[in-house]
Write a structure and sequence with these properties.
- The protein has 307 residues and is an alpha+beta fold.
- The protein has seven helices and 21 strands.
- The protein has a seven-stranded mixed beta barrel.
- The longest helix has 14 residues.
Length: 307
C-alpha cells in the first residue's frame, strides 16, 4: 500500500524489554530518542527500560537499563538526555493499549498514522495499559492476582551480561552488495568500504544521512525508481550515502551500493548524530546465518535471569 513498516528503530531492545516484563515480544512500548520524559503511574505496574541509558530515576532512585522493576501507584519515572546511544524503550507489563493500524501498533510519524493519534507524545497525554499476560496458574483459575499483588510479588529480571555484550550496537555495520553494486567502479567501492562515515544532524527515522568521503560520480541517477528495502544504502547526488530506515520511502531512484544485513538493523536505531560508522562486506550466504545465530540467542532461556 506504499506505507513503510515503521516500528521500533531498535527492535531488539523493544523485544527484550517486553520479555523482561512478561509481554509478547511485539507488545507496544514507548520509544524515546535522545531525550526522555516524565511518566506518572496512577496504578502499580511492572516496567523495564532497554536500549540506551537515559539516566532514569524512580522516586529519586536510579533505575538501571535492561532490568525490570516494580512501580508503586503515584510514582513518576523520570528520564533525561541519553548517556550512550540514541534510543531508550519503556515497556510496561500489559503493553500500551492502542488500536492497531495496518496490523501494527507503531506510530508512523511521517504520515501521521497509527499509534497514539498518529503523533509523538505530548505533555498531558494519558496512555492506557493493556491487560497483563496471565501465568499458567492464573489461566487455570488456581490463583487470582490483582495489579497490586503483581507489583508486590514481582522479582526483578535482567539481561545476562554475556548476552547483552553480544547483542550490543555495532559501529562496523555488516552489509551485502546492493542491487546496483555492479554500477560502481572498484575505486568507488574501495572508498566506501575503507572510509569512516559520520551520521549527520539530518538523520531521522526515514533515513540516516552520512557525511564523509564522496563516492565518485558515475552511478548517480539515470535509473527508474524501484522498490527499496529497509537498510538499503543509496548513493545520492553529491556522492553521500543514505541508509534507508524504518519510515523510509517505499521506492527510490538512487543506485544502492549495499544493504545492511538484518542482524545489524537494530544497531542503526542507536546511531546518534556525529557517530561514526564503517561498512564490512559479507557474503549473501553469511547474512541468514548471522540472523539465525542472533535469533537463537534472543530465544534462549539464558537471555534473561532473575536478580
Amino acid at each position: 500500500m506504499g506505507v513503510s513498516p515503521s516500528g521500533a528503530a531498535d527492535p531488539i531492545a523493544l523485544r527484550i524489554g517486553n520479555r523482561l516484563v512478561g509481554n509478547a515480544e511485539g507488545a507496544a512500548g514507548l520509544e524515546m530518542t535522545l531525550l526522555g520524559g516524565s511518566f506518572l503511574f496512577p496504578e502499580p505496574a511492572v516496567a523495564a527500560l532497554t536500549g540506551s541509558d537515559f539516566g532514569a530515576t524512580l522516586d529519586n532512585a536510579a533505575i538501571p537499563p535492561w532490568t525490570s522493576f516494580a512501580v508503586k501507584a503515584g510514582l513518576a519515572l523520570k528520564l533525561g538526555p541519553t548517556r550512550s546511544g540514541a534510543r531508550c524503550y519503556l515497556c510496561v507489563r500489559g503493553g500500551i493499549a492502542v488500536e492497531p493500524f495496518l496490523g501494527s501498533a507503531s506510530t508512523h510519524l511521517l504520515s501521521g498514522l497509527g499509534g497514539h493519534q498518529g503523533r509523538a507524545l505530548r505533555k498531558g497525554d494519558v496512555l492506557k495499559i493493556g491487560n497483563a499476560p496471565q501465568t499458567g496458574q492464573q489461566r487455570t483459575g488456581k490463583r487470582a492476582c490483582s495489579a497490586a499483588n503483581t507489583h508486590e510479588s514481582h522479582r526483578a529480571r535482567k539481561v545476562a551480561p554475556k548476552a547483552l555484550a553480544h547483542l550490543g550496537p555495532r559501529k562496523v555495520l555488516r552489509v551485502t552488495p546492493g542491487p546496483q553494486s555492479d554500477w560502481f567502479p572498484k575505486a568507488a567501492k574501495k572508498i566506501f568500504y575503507s572510509s569512516a562515515y559520520r551520521v549527520s544532524e539530518e538523520a531521522n527515522r526515514m533515513g540516516l544521512r552520512l557525511q564523509g568521503p564522496a563516492i565518485p560520480e558515475g552511478a548517480h541517477g539515470g535509473m527508474i525508481s524501484e522498490g527499496v528495502s529497509l537498510g538499503a544504502i543509496q548513493i545520492a547526488a553529491g556522492g553521500m550515502p543514505i541508509i534507508l530506515f524504518v519510515e523510509q520511502q517505499t521506492t527510490g531512484g538512487y543506485a544502492k551500493m549495499a544493504n545492511v544485513i538484518a542482524a545489524d538493523l537494530s544497531s542503526l536505531g542507536q546511531l546518534r548524530p556525529r557517530d561514526e560508522v564503517r561498512f564490512e562486506l559479507v557474503e549473501f550466504k553469511s547474512a541468514p546465518k548471522l540472523l539465525i545465530e542472533q535469533e537463537k540467542l534472543l530465544a534462549s532461556d539464558d537471555l534473561v535471569v532473575e536478580t
